[in-house]
Design goal:
Glycosyltransferase; mainly alpha; 17 helices; about 0% strand; about 425 residues; single chain
Length: about 425
Amino acid sequence: MQRRQLLLATAGATAAGAAVSPAAAGNAFSGADDRAYTLGLLQRMAEPVLSAMAQGQLKARLPLEVGPTWDGRPRAVAYMECFARLIAGVAPWLALPDDDTPEGQLRRRLRQQTLQSYTHAVDPQSPDYLLWRTNSQPLVDSAYFTQALLRAPQALWEPLDATTKARIVTEIKQLRRVSPPYTNWLLFAAMNEVFLLMVGEDWDPMRVGVTIRKLQEWYAGDGWVSDGPVFHFDYYNGFVIYPMLVEMLEVLARLRPHFNNIKLDVELPLWRRRMQRFGEHLERMVSPTGTFPPVGRSITYRTAGFQPLALMAWRKALPASLPEGQVRAALTAVHRAVFDHPSNFTREGHLTLGFTSHQPELADRYTNTGSLYITSASLLALGLPAADTFWTAPALPWTQQKAFSGQAFPRDYAVTY
């Protein structure tokens, strides 16, 4: 408890639940302030979940809340959603080297709890054995489960014991029983196959190849991808499509498996450029006070739609049009605007249904407490150490701050790639 209080204190009062108005957030904070605040959010999301699951107690301790339109699926899907989505966002930070700072001690503890949680997740004798073999929803969250392993293989995959590794492979392969609809769900099946390729298991290139081809067909232009044949104006390009597609292509380009008529040397740079363009749109959506449009499905995922910006920051792949200090200031303002209200968390520290507070009426028919932990995906830049230029560069005003204060800002034009 003492170590937890220490880090929350360094993260500032807002991470502990006190209010700071979005207008006060601006870009008045230093890079160290921004990182401390962001780290405080990570700790607040991760610690209650991982400390419980490491002991096989997540199902006993996680309170389950669903919205008024819940579709009646088994509520036990929530535990897989909670762990898998959380760890996908936390994985880059867990992969940083150990040190004896308070942050380093926290990381060492949460990494060990994560490894213990992976063991419980696939042990049929554990109280926290996840819902792998019922209905189709496990396909979705298995992809976040494996995405974390793609993001931090040395920290999260290699230390696992042989039995746990074998059980993970077995559970992932049995999910081939699910036939995904022709939507973003194709990416979940493909992500699992790329994970199997990465760890040296037999994999299905057809599931991967079809997904790449369908996403190429669904590219709507100017950095936006349709979620299936019909375009949806929402944040699924950020929740799922760009991060999973680009990260899969990175692994494929590194391992060079054989494909018919898919040229990885073309596809990877093309989709990176498109993600950069989408990132420019995301940055322009951030208002001068850090708010952004609450449009489309799954807005209870809060800040998860900004995952592409956080991913590009972590990968050192931001376009020249988006300097690091500008993106950091914008992302921190978004986090402060969303997590300002203390009712985003329960008294026990778990996320609540809502967008900027406890707003259960905003939940979709599939939304439960576990679903919300995808918001950790907006914290990927914590995979960069405190001394990295992303955290040390001077804060810069983002586009809407410039526009609404009379400063010069770049005009915006559509791209053709």
